[in-house]
């Protein structure tokens, strides 16, 4: 029995039942490796219930955010098929505790990608790129957490929507984007916010997932990180992103 089993159960139940839970590491005693062990065990429970791994999401891909959090590296979380929302579909607010949304660039892989790869090698593994939206939803009460706590909670990843796929030979290093809620622009940004080049996020994903013994697989989706600050979302709202040259992605929160 793992010393972290009670925390794994706490966070797994919180995500499954959309129920806020208190912080468990307010003294910041949990190490980052321990936090990732908890995340992995929590996702393993979902897989045991029938969910399927479909990719990874990257977090803190803004240099400013990394510096603010005292980090020298990005963080990451796991994606399952139960988290994917069909583009344009309606998703129930009851699935979440206190959801927010952020615009992303998504990569679709055509072959495995693992270890310390170059940006050239990373691009060669990409089948397609697409605009995307990620729903982030910390399960902690009042949306308050330490860095290890957010990692343990699957880096707050709760849902994602991917738009139409496009040729990755498009130059996607600095694509303008607008995220709107009910037709009103709420965030304007660029894919350049993702470590200066979204491919660097994919390189980091390959390195970190391989180090965890879960290398990126063909057919997986990699969300490169939030290109703007996240926005709170509420029932009845329609959320959309439009990305220069790539079209858009949208969903409705009911």
From TrEMBL:
Residues 76-248 form the Fumarylacetoacetase-like C-terminal domain. This is 4-oxalocrotonate decarboxylase. Keywords: Lyase. It comes from Comamonas testosteroni. It comes from the Bacteria. One of its GO terms (cellular component) is cytoplasm. PANTHER family: 2-KETO-4-PENTENOATE HYDRATASE, ACID HYDRATASE. GO terms for molecular function: 2-oxopent-4-enoate hydratase activity.
């Amino acid at each position: 029995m793992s010393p972290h089993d009670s925390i794994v159960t706490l966070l797994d139940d919180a995500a499954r039942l959309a129920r806020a839970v208190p912080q468990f590491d307010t003294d910041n005693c949990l190490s980052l490796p321990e936090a990732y062990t908890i995340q992995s065990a929590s996702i393993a429970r979902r897989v045991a219930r029938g969910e399927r791994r479909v990719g990874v999401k990257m977090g803190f891909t803004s240099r400013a955010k990394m510096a603010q959090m005292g980090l020298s590296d990005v963080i990451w979380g796991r994606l399952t098929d139960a988290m994917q929302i069909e583009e344009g579909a309606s998703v129930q607010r009851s699935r979440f505790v206190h959801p927010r949304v952020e615009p992303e660039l998504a990569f679709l892989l055509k072959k495995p990608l693992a270890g310390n790869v170059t940006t050239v090698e990373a691009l060669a593994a990409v089948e397609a790129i697409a605009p995307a939206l990620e729903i982030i939803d910390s399960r902690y009460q009042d949306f308050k957490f330490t860095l290890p706590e957010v990692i343990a909670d699957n880096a707050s990843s709760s849902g994602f929507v991917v738009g139409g796929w496009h040729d990755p030979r498009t130059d996607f290093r600095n694509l303008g984007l607008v995220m709107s809620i009910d037709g009103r622009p709420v965030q304007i940004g660029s894919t350049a916010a993702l470590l200066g080049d979204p491919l660097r996020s994919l390189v980091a994903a390959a390195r970190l997932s391989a180090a965890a013994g879960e290398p990126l697989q063909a057919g997986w989706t990699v969300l490169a990180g939030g290109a703007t600050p996240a926005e709170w979302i509420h029932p009845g709202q329609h959320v959309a992103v439009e990305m220069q040259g790539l079209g858009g992605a949208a969903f409705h929160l009911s």
